[in-house]
Design goal:
The complex is a heterotetramer, with 2 copies of chain A (about 400 residues) and 2 copies of chain B (about 325 residues). With about 400 residues, chain A is an alpha/beta fold. Chain A is built from 12 helices and 7 strands. Classes of the chains: A alpha/beta (about 400), B alpha/beta (about 325). The complex binds thiamine diphosphate (2 copies) and magnesium ion (MG) (2 copies). The site of one magnesium ion has 7 residues of chain D, from strand 4.
């Protein structure tokens, strides 16, 4: 009977709410360069400490330090920076376009741009990513036409998805970018299936799946991880832990009790916890997992520790539920600033160069959005209504045929 | 009486019941501190504390499973699924567990839970924020499915749902939350406040589950509708001058079969309207029931006005949505014979 | 030609297709070494190796998600869900992903998967080994649903399902696996081998999806059925002497609407039979379609003969199951007018 | 490019198939008494090694050794033994009854009897277990009337579940035994909800949920564990790892990569791995988790390592997929033999006493089954058909009323 206390229901609460000072003291950190870098073929049993550390390469001055430092040429980094900057600018402009009624909805990935950019450039052309709605920088890094993004967002006559999808739920097979849906988590298992298919075919295509930290609670995420553990396919499963899931802090997903990377331990696969605002660390960890996958050693889970610097979506107002300026207080900084600083420290860029790059990005983004707007924004232009009835099946059945006729198209 | 929109009426129902009954717990994604993405649970955490209204992991199956366990224990949880489009991960829990628990245990355990689900289209939400999956639930033996169409009903029906000892899926037509919608997207927004059914008592009251409401009496044709389509149909009737009787079903399980049969036998004609896609939709069941019970009174084929048999398409919202003109056309077809 | 029961015919379809197409992978719970709890995948692992026919974790959602990912890559997986009662954990994957992938990605990706599902009652399997959830799938835009009733069709339809580039739910009436069943539990077991439709070619052949089969021509009433109920209905027709036309729908999506309409217009009467519980069942859709398209030819109310609106009860199997007498009663009611 | 090999799809295989020698060398064991016993209030972070060990108390001679040894009086052990023996005998007789056509179906728990018996006696009257179909010994230990079991199995006129359920899917609220269903895993979350309700009410009832190791792959199991981690309710979640899930060995559920207890690490809750054929170890671990729960420290995951000694069910034939005599080779022995041996070693029982106990059990089982058979076996007797239409809802609606009338009841 010792130690008994009255039972009570525990409900986790974040470290602060509106009016409070931001407080990230609960986020377990480690200095850049501190985490060890085991060989990519190390048995999982020797990796069980990894989920509790934090792989960081860029230190506070922007120097790359420690065993995870990747050997990347300047133009690789500059391509990454260009993609991240364009993502940031594009997001801001589209958010505004939404406010102006030009689109029904928008979602930014501000603060998280390093993730898609670094991974897009790390993986190969034939690899496939299974994105969430916050992985726009993947497409940017692969030079997906920004006008096509705009057309999708405006659901105009040139929308590559024919007006069928909400804004930002892109699909771009040729760019290694799987179809997004509003449903959370339900594509993670597709990434595993894709990778199993690749292994079955003795191909060398690997798959990369993403879920937000909030989404890890979905059953389908567990199912995907279970299959990834059992069949050891060449897949990298990423949790983008941006601390928030709409208004719910990461503790509501279990983040107060352990790390999201530690979920790997349940499946006997390696789990890496990575600074998600550090382009180099993301590249290095992704490449580690990729080498492991291509060594036929199976899946890796990567938690990318980052921060959702903006609203959840155009329908959201984060000042209602979290302290102001949390983004400024975020201990891992801004991914764009950090990569820029690194390039400067390396001597591969000056402040002037950066200004030039930024202005060039702005120009390109502006031109593309203008082009898309010229075709039409929401309601001003749309694909033919017959597209509503097409591709329900490969061939329509009598229902789509009759109904399309009824509508008059 | 206060003029309330639907969100306020629902909030008032929850508030009133929580105040009265400490066994009522509310949880779901973002329903706690934030008060829900549609604000239906606004201020309830502040008022009743963290353990009575709280956020959950993003896990619809987990939410419903937890509710069932609490219900079996003796509480009366009211949970929110953020969008009907996201209720499917909880489908197995609802069908295989909530709906069957009383029957299979011979009354040893039961699940007195209410699952609130914003549903339906008209908000440019695309494929995954617009769907109307009520037919999937109507077929499930052991579940009740309730669908209010106005603030007054919303409060009274939600209170009945909460007090019901069986699991109730409570579909909230989200397009009606903040104002009336008659299926005419170009019209100015009509706030609820001038509508007679926005006069909502502050106190607890009940509307029994399974009693339809005759919105408008008429003799030319019976129109069966629920949710947003009630207003679309009414607007259509007003526009075209056909003397239609409009019945708001309010709940599709239990169904007010008597009201339906009585009306159709009188009018001899029937139009069924719902937002969901047609094939296998709940309109099929309604049509079959009317046909079985009113065959000798029917003077024209029963018509269904529904969403098309395609996914809910973002840019074609108003081509897909069964608006007033399509209801008018259907009513007119019933009059041609 | 060889006399095959339904299990053998299905196995022969899988074997033939695997032999022909290395992109076909088979997986599911216990389908590998063991060959499936109903033996439909017997010997396929032995013949085609561990990576082409293998066991999976007990995770229906995971099975379907994996299949979709493989399908998107370019394979053509054929998966088994051990019992239809256990398909609901995969429901979200089927509805929100498999059914929508082609449409939402504008043809960038699609899911050419086949999901084999033993379903239906008559085996004393109680609530969770007897259900017929086909109506839940028929309502889902983007899924096809196929239901064979005999070995010959089973093989030809399964081959078409596998070759189809859209997701197909392939419901196998498990009561028919090893013998004919006419809804008369006290009769001796009737093996398939003497049935003309048990003559199954060894080689590949196809039955197109969406073409019904007229089992018996007749002029008094049209009976629509699928799966086990085809045999129950035929036995009922033979017993009562009504000259009924019996149509085996074979697939409910796509539906052979022309065959149905042509027949009912001719007979003027219609009985619909399925095992699933009635309310919201697929019979409602059939009834609505017939009514809409044959209204002026109908001489009696369309009848539905179905399971009751209760869970599937173990000890009351034969009280619940819509046996031949209930089909006879319904046919007779259509003749009384 | 180092370390690259051609990709191939991996599918796990068991150590043996029919015709092979049983081989359990892959089962990670530890000697009795070796695993440490931390204080029940130890923070999870200090318990992360526990899932990889194995809590055992009874050694090969039947002596209780080590820090987990519970202090249990002889009559407690004898009650447990009685329940286990009756379970074994009852199972055997009912399996035979099934072969004789007296019931449609049956499932034995042979080899796993210690689990339900030890936990039933460890937990209190107001605690609730959320069983699988292999936890019959829980009811036996609480003296649930065996005749009522028989009535349920025969679906006869006295069936407490009114003929609505398949055999063995019992429900017995008054015995702390939640309604079983055929669906795997879908009640684990109910256990968590129950425990949350108890905590909310400041009650002291705790919940105990079970799943088989195969079932851990279901999404709903992850969801239950997630809620258990987040809200810290007083619940004990058990994985009965009996090595097989019908014909699939535990590796198909991921058991080759790590332990099932290690799944706890994904949720930040303690995970204990326990000898499931050791009545004392089960008692000790369960009591540890219970004390922790009643100390308001939340959930514990317990893996019970055992072996399914018999067929999956009356519809199954294990000789088709696993080596013969695997049960004899199982390194953790027979739970009944081991408890009996312990009682003998303790001096609380002689071989003669055991024979007497066994015969007494046999007599009681036989008498109960006879009584049930006298009421009727499958098809010879059943509840009134009106029960088919009752309790679909609390009150029937017009559909049940009309249809019942149509059937004539
Ligand atoms: C199955 C499902 N449930 C709920 C939602 C509603 N919803 C959309 S985004 C979101 C939060 C997701 O949070 P997280 O996974 O952390 O991703 P983030 O937005 O932070 O990138 C929720 C609850 C949904 N889209 N799908
Ligand atoms: C959701 C669901 N899927 C599949 C089945 C079919 N099935 C019944 S028992 C079983 C194996 C369960 O194995 P395990 O969890 O290890 O439990 P054990 O039988 O070994 O005690 C399967 C696949 C089911 N009952 N429910
Ligand atoms: Mg997040
Ligand atoms: Mg097992």
């Amino acid at each position: 009977m010792k130690n008994r206390t009255e039972l009570s229901l525990y409900v986790p609460e974040p470290s602060g709410r509106p009016g409070d000072e931001p407080d990230f003291s609960n986020v377990a950190l480690q200095d850049a360069g501190e985490q060890r870098c085991p060989d990519t073929l190390t048995p999982e049993i020797e990796l069980r400490d990894m989920p509790y550390g934090l792989i960081r390469v860029l230190d506070d001055e922007g120097k790359a330090v420690g065993p995870w430092t990747p050997d990347l040429p300047a133009d690789h980094l500059l391509r990454g920076l260009d993609a991240m900057v364009r993502t940031r600018i594009f997001d801001d402009r589209m958010f505004r376009a939404n406010r102006q009624g030009k689109t029904s909805f928008y979602m930014k990935s501000s603060g998280e741009e390093a993730i898609g950019a670094a991974q897009s450039l790390c993986l190969g052309e034939r690899d496939m990513c299974f994105p969430t709605y916050r992985i726009l920088s993947w497409l940017m890094a692969r030079d997906y036409p920004m006008t096509a993004l705009g057309n999708q967002i405006f659901s105009n006559a040139e929308d590559p998805l024919k007006g069928r999808q909400m804004p930002v739920l892109y699909s771009a097979r040729d760019y290694g970018f799987y179809s997004i849906s509003g449903n959370l988590g339900s594509r993670l298992g597709h990434a595993v299936g894709w990778a199993m298919a690749s292994a079955y075919r003795h191909d060398d295509s690997i798959a990369l799946g993403y879920v937000g930290e909030g989404t890890t609670a979905e059953g389908n995420v567990h199912e995907a991880l279970t299959f990834a553990g059992v069949y050891r396919p060449p897949v990298i499963l990423c949790v983008t832990n941006n601390q928030w899931a709409i208004s719910s802090f990461s503790g509501i997903a279990g983040g107060n009790r352990t790390t999201f990377a530690a979920k790997a331990l349940a499946y006997g696969i390696p789990g890496l916890r990575v600074d998600g605002n550090d382009f180099l660390a993301i590249h290095a960890a992704t490449n580690w997992a990729r080498e492991r996958a291509l060594g036929n050693k199976g899946a890796t889970l990567i938690e990318l520790v980052t921060y959702r610097a903006s609203a959840h979506s155009s329908s959201d107002d984060p000042t209602r539920y979290r302290p102001k300026n949390e983004d400024k207080a975020w201990p891992l900084g801004d991914p764009i600033e950090r990569l820029k600083q690194h390039l400067i420290v390396r001597g591969d860029m000056t402040e002037d160069d950066y200004r030039e790059l930024y202005e060039d990005c702005e120009k390109r983004v502006r031109a593309s959005i203008r082009e898309a707007e010229a075709i039409g924004t929401l309601g001003q232009s749309k694909p033919s209504v017959k597209a509503m009835f097409e591709q329900v099946f490969k061939e329509p059945d009598w229902r789509q045929i009759e109904q399309r006729r009824e509508v008059g198209y | 009486m206060t003029a309330m929109n639907m969100v306020q009426a629902l909030n008032s129902a929850l508030d009133g019941k929580m105040n009265e009954d400490p066994d009522i717990l509310i949880f779901g994604e973002d329903v706690g501190y934030f008060g829900g993405v549609f604000r239906v649970t606004d201020k309830l955490q502040e008022k009743y504390g963290l353990t009575r209204c709280f956020d959950t992991p993003i896990s619809e199956g987990g939410i419903v499973a937890t509710a069932i366990g609490m219900g079996a224990y003796g509480l009366r949880p009211v949970v929110e699924i953020q969008f009907a489009d996201y209720i499917l991960p909880a489908f197995d829990q609802l069908v295989s567990e909530a709906a069957r628990l009383r029957y299979r245990s011979n009354g040893d355990f039961w699940a007195p839970i209410t699952v609130r689900v914003p549903y339906g289209g008209g908000i440019f939400g695309g494929q995954t924020h617009s769907q109307s999956p009520e037919a999937l639930f109507a077929h499930v033996v052991g579940l009740k499915s309730v669908i209010p169409s106005n603030p007054y009903d919303a409060k009274g029906l939600l209170i009945s749902a909460i007090e019901d000892d069986d699991p109730v899926i409570f579909f909230e037509p989200k397009r009606l939350y903040n104002g009336l919608f008659e299926g005419r997207p170009d019209d100015a927004v009509k706030p609820w406040k001038n509508h007679p059914l926005a006069d909502v008592p502050e106190e607890i009251y009940r509307i029994p589950l399974g009693k339809a409401r005759t919105v408008r009496e008429g003799s030319d044709v019976t129109v069966l509708a629920y949710g947003t389509m009630v207003h679309v149909a009414l607007s259509a009737i007003e526009e075209c001058g056909i003397d239609a009787e409009l019945i708001d079903l309010r709940s599709i399980v239990p169904l007010d079969i008597d009201a339906i049969v009585e009306s159709v036998r009188r009018t001899g004609r029937c139009v069924i309207a719902h937002e969901a896609s047609r094939y296998g939709g709940f309109g099929g069941e309604l049509s079959a029931l009317v046909q079985e019970r009113c065959f000798y009174h029917l003077r024209a084929p029963i018509e269904r006005v529904t969403g098309w048999d395609t996914p809910y398409p973002h840019a074609f919202e108003w081509d897909y949505f069964p608006g007033p003109q399509r209801v008018i056309d259907a009513m007119q077809r019933t009059q041609e014979v």
